[in-house]
Design brief:
Blueprint lengths: L2 H33 L8 H39 L5 H12 L4 H8 L3 H24 L1
């Protein structure tokens, strides 16, 4: 796996988690909609549907928690790799871009550099990170 894909896994996993959280909210709203139908007599089938929906919500919550655990582990692993990159400014760029999820334009603003300079430094930072990644894989 190349270094960009490896570092980019954080944002992909973060996107997956956010998508699941949105779906979870939709499932929860379905329960509220069905429970607010107090004027309608509740049949056994609607109770069964509600129970199935609750089970799906619990399963999804557990899945999201596992994904969050994976994301935390991945960020720790990536931060460990980034910590070996020298000099410090290259580490900052990689951390802001790949761990914090900022766009390069936002990294440039945060570090008070031009976007062109950040792009050059980013390329250099990726090269240094790749060296560390290869060293780690070779162990």
């Amino acid at each position: 796996m190349d270094i960009r894909k490896y570092l980019g896994m954080c944002s992909k996993l973060d996107g997956i988690i956010n998508s699941k959280l949105e779906y979870l909210e939709r499932l929860k709203s379905l329960i509220y909609k069905t429970s607010n139908m107090s004027d309608v007599r509740v049949s056994d089938s609607s109770k069964d549907n509600t129970e199935r929906l609750i089970v799906k919500i619990i399963d999804l919550q557990n899945e999201i928690n596992r994904d969050i655990d994976s994301l935390v582990d991945l960020k720790r692993e990536i931060r460990e790799l980034i910590s070996k990159v020298e000099p410090f400014e290259l580490r900052s760029i990689l951390d802001l871009k790949y761990v914090c999820g900022l766009r390069l334009e936002d990294v440039a603003l945060k570090l008070n550099y031009s976007i062109r300079h950040i792009m050059r430094l980013h390329a250099k930072a990726l090269s240094e990170a790749e060296k560390q990644y290869i060293k780690r894989k070779g162990r």
